[in-house]
Design goal:
Blueprint (H helix, E strand, L loop, with lengths): L2 H8 L2 E6 L17 H17 L5 E7 L26 E4 L10 H4 L5 E7 L1 H14 L3 E10 L3 E3 L5 E3 L1 H15 L2 E3 L4 H4 L4
Parallel strand pairs: 1-2, 1-4, 2-3, 4-5, 5-8
Antiparallel strand pairs: 6-7
Helix pairs in contact: 4-5
């Protein structure tokens, strides 16, 4: 049995860190998401908790590869992962919102795994990846205050702006209705425990 197969058989829980990259998690005045201080700390705490578990989940880092001159253009400072992966934690580079699209992510996640999701952006990659995971039959958990996005310009609504916090809430409600389970940071101690 290959090391990859052994890893897949050893765990039935996955922590998926979506686009936890430097460019979106810098301070808001430098172009980061409005909730950066809370979200950055929460993701760091979640990652530390997962790594410290007696039976840790499989941890997978997903990194968006933007177009030339975009903040997440490959091999630029903004493209780098904020929290360096450990040697056994795979990195999946993607070019689409859905982290399963045209990547090997589906090959790394056991068929009956529970997927715990954190990361960026709530209304793009988090939504698309959670939705795709549901269609493959996985149980999906999204941790509140561990995903974020930017304020949304409403072009069709007279140029008004919907605050990021409202957009994040809309995405949570949509995903919960689709079958994603939402948990709060106060429940972090139980997220990676066997149930």
């Amino acid at each position: 049995m290959s090391p990859s197969q052994q890893l897949r058989n050893a765990t039935r829980r996955v922590l998926l860190l979506i686009d936890v990259q430097v460019h979106m998690l810098k301070d808001p005045e430098d172009g980061g998401v409005p909730a950066v201080h809370t979200v950055r700390q929460n993701i760091e705490d979640i990652l530390a908790k997962a790594r410290s578990e007696k039976h840790p989940p499989q941890i997978i880092h997903v990194r968006n590869s933007g177009e030339p001159r975009e903040p997440d253009e490959p091999n630029t400072p903004g493209w780098q992962l904020l929290f360096p992966p450990l040697p056994h934690e795979p990195i999946i580079d993607k070019e689409k919102n859905n982290a399963f699209a045209n990547t090997r992510l589906g090959d790394l996640i056991p068929e009956n795994a529970e997927i715990v999701v954190v990361g960026m952006q709530s209304d793009y990659c988090v939504r698309a990846t959670c939705s795709a995971a549901l269609t493959t039959g996985h149980e999906v958990i999204l941790i509140r205050d561990a995903h974020a996005t930017f304020d949304r310009d409403e072009v069709w609504k007279g140029g008004s702006v919907t605050k990021a916090r409202v957009v994040e809430g809309e995405v949570e409600a949509e995903l919960e209705e689709a079958g994603v389970k939402l948990v709060d940071m106060k429940d972090l101690d139980t997220v990676f425990k066997d149930r």
